[in-house]
Design brief:
The complex is a heterodimer of chains A (316) and B (389). Chain A has 316 residues and is of the alpha+beta class. In chain A, 14% of the residues lie in helices and 32% in strands. In chain A, the strands form 3 sheets. In chain A, strands 1, 2, 3, 4, 5 and 6 form a 6-stranded antiparallel sheet that branches. In chain A, strands 10-11-12-14-13 form a 5-stranded mixed beta barrel. Chain B is an alpha/beta fold and 389 residues long. In chain B, 32% of the residues lie in helices and 17% in strands. In chain B, β10 and β11 form a beta hairpin. Classes of the chains: A alpha+beta (316), B alpha/beta (389). Chain A: It comes from Edaphosphingomonas laterariae.
Chain lengths: 316, 389
Amino acid sequence: MTEQSDLLARARAYIGSEATKPVTARDPVNQPMIRRWAEAMGDTNPLWHDADARAAAGFNGAVSPPAMLEVWTMSPYRPGGGTSDEGMEVLKLFDEAGYFGVVATNIEQEYVRYLQEGDIIQSRAVVADVSDEKRTGLGIGHFVTIDYEFTDQKGELVGRMKFRVLKFKPPLKQAEAAPAAAEGKAKKFPHPRPAITHDNAFFWEGLKQRKLLIQSFNGRLVHPPVPACPETGSFEWTTVEASGKGVIHSFVVMHQPQLPCFEYPLPVVLVELAEGVRIVANMIDAKPEDVAVGKAVTLDFVEVEPDYILPAFRLA
Amino acid sequence: MGTISNQAAIVGIGATEFSKNSGRSELRLAVEATLEALADAGIDPAEVDGLSTYTMDNNPEIELFRAIGGRELKFHSRIHYGGGAACAPIMHAAMAVATGVAKTVVCYRAMNERSQYRFGTGHTPPPVPTAETAHYGWYVPYGLISPASWVAMQARRYMHNYGATSEDFGRVSVAARKHAATNPKAWFYQQPITLEEHQASRWIVEPLHLLDCCQESDGAVAIVVTSVERAKSLKQPPAIIRAAAQGAGDDSQMMTSYYRQDISRISEMNIVAEQLYAQAGIGPNDVQAAILYDHFTPFVLPQLEAFGFAKEGQAKDFIREGNIEMGGRLPINTHGGQLGEAYIHGLNGVAEGVRLVRGTSVNQVAGVNNVVVTAGTGVPTSGLILSPA
């Protein structure tokens, strides 16, 4: 498939180049992090926390377990904790193509010397390999291998790491019904759920991150999404995030039938987004009589149930 | 190139009573209507060698076939998109007859849509991930859950574009109930309504009032199709299938074609109208009466425009001038439509088209040469032109 090989070609263009900018450790090698890491790992070797044991082994000051090699230059794991430099372009490429699942599959480390208290570690990551498309138990994907080199404050090599991840299209997890209310009480009426397919999963994943994503075939936007570009037949697509500006193209006010999870009368709007595609959604803080064709609206999001986020609009 | 025009004819029609609770199985309704249609035609049930229906019918072809004593079933088809396919079984039957695949085809629709299940309740089963269920995800999570609401979205834009009003929709309903009032088979026999009553009826989905929505019905209709040649020796004067077509258009969606350039049009019906006129070699001036699918009143207006009875955006004027009522330029839904007679997913409209051709409608239009019959709108649709021999 030419579309597939196009994505692969673009990904493989990164091979041999830096996966990220070089990273310098936020903290020098230090006893508190070593102690906590060893505790978390269940590593009871006294060398990591006992001064006498260290001295007997010929070390001055704290010494780091070799397997902590990568820890010193890791970016913060909480969302927003890392800098944009720390994201890997080659992985983003797969995210945009719908391979948003990621799992680490192999780590091989090679240690040149023990790291000791006060060492300031720097890592340099290079894209080593991008595999052909593989069909794995997790889903269809590509293995991406990154080679790391770790150096100390003198620029001398202290270790190496080969790190391999699988970027995959995750299996389509269907939405679960709303959790049942406390025992003995009536079950809450669930908010209607979408059916998640390989073609639309990106849209619902995007909403979880409060992003309204529109399918883009080389700039031609399509909603609702389709497997291939209606113009060119290309299966290669990315997404663009809606700016959030739009105009009410049409609307209705629901009276009957009623579902327990909505308030009535319920306006439902068809919004033409600034990007040119239309989307059905609800309004926030708008009375039915305030809704009219041609009115400007702005995008917001509502969490109708835990982890179930829908787009909604406010009058601009 | 072959043609299906003037090759086949409708030679028999049958129906059960139309009610809110038939008290018997849908399959039995199908059998009753089929046997009545065959008796109407004067054809032995054992001669039936083709069956055709459309989706959202629960009666398996082979169950109906064994119940009527069928022997050799050589053709059967089931066409997608519910009411949008109401005229399509007639088209498929005509194609089967024209090509010699089958000789006698029964088209049927039987439903307990009021007493056993109801459309548009908003019931949302857990989704199974198919392309069809995925489509519901674009509107059901926002409470846009009923056929009335799906139509209302396009109706609002039509009003915005052309200045049509709720009263214009109401006039469609008033005309239908006027026609139903003189049809003893209609559920709303002797129950006409006024425009004031339409306006005062409660909102279902703004801009649709209750009286913009068709009823829910139990009942069945069956139609017998055979060759024009065979029709000559049968009991009834034939209704010649002069044209038959299906249509889906650009970016068609099931009831929610909201993403195409102009959502006030029903481009599926334009595609059907163009084909029908081309097959029949006629134009709107040659049509004396029409059965226009009226599940919801607003979509009758763009249908009048699609067939050229009114210019774009001017159906409201055509209706205001009384043209769709008896004595008008184009009486429509002379049986009372689905608003007045029954909602048998459009097949009762095909039967009325046959009666108009035979000259036996309770609201007979004089000098009928061509009747247009249409199927459900907002979905891929279909249509017919029926004529006397």
